[in-house]
Amino acid sequence: MALDVNQYIDHTLLKADADESQILQLCEEAKEHNFAGICIPPYYVKLAKTHLKDSNVLIATVVSFPMGYDHIGSKMDSIKKSIDQGADELDAVINITAIKNGRWVEVESEIDSLITACRIKNKTIKLIIEAALLTPSELDQILEIAIKHKPGFVKTSTGFAVSDNLVELVKYLRSKLPDSIKIKASGGIKDLETAEKLIEAGADRLGTSSAMKILSL
To answer: Which CATH number do you get for residue 184?
Structure first.
């Protein structure tokens, strides 16, 4: 394997019916196979923090997942609670509803607030832009806002709305964003070939619930 794909993977389990034993298994797999991190529901952050306390595995959780249209106050409270319980990274869904109504001042204000809330706690935010739902013009405007406010990552998708060509999307994002803003590719990553192509296209992280299948472990 030319690329060490393991170190790019956020080992992900965000199903509503995920139980404690599955989360603990996810943590063990992440430790054993040197994955970059796990991505889990906020409900399980405290459990994962305890289980991963002696490891280098990052704990990511989600904010306003998967729709993104929660009130900003709810998103801010979610970020604070998850950080307090041990989250290292926050994968936050931007307000697609506001975008579709052309309320760009609100969109930018929210993004600024979300990034600031994570930055002051020295935590990483990944802005989930749900690119498959955006027009080319909307996508470019979101990227301009991201460049201005400098999140840790731009993330392609929640996994609910999947881009037709994720590799080309990542290439486009990489061409527009400075190197200081990383890219997390997510949505339909189910095999090693796709994972490697995404990394070669410029993805810094891969969000997938198929990590063990991808690596045939």
So the answer is: 3.20.20.70
Which residue in the list 155, 171, 182, 204 is annotated as catalytic? 155
91 is catalytic: yes
Buried b / exposed e along 103-123 (16+ C-beta atoms within 10 A)? eeeebbebbebbbebbeeeeb
The number of residues making up the chain comes to: 217
Residue 155 falls in the annotated catalytic set: yes
Q: What is the pLDDT of residues 91-136, one digit of tens each?
A: 999 999 999 999 999 999 999 999 999 999 999 999 999 999 999 9
Report the amino acid identity of residue 211.
A
pTM: 0.96
Give the residue numbers spanning the domain of 73.
Answer: 5-214
Which member of 75, 126, 171, 184 is catalytic?
184
CA distance linking residue 33 with residue 12, whole number of Å? 14
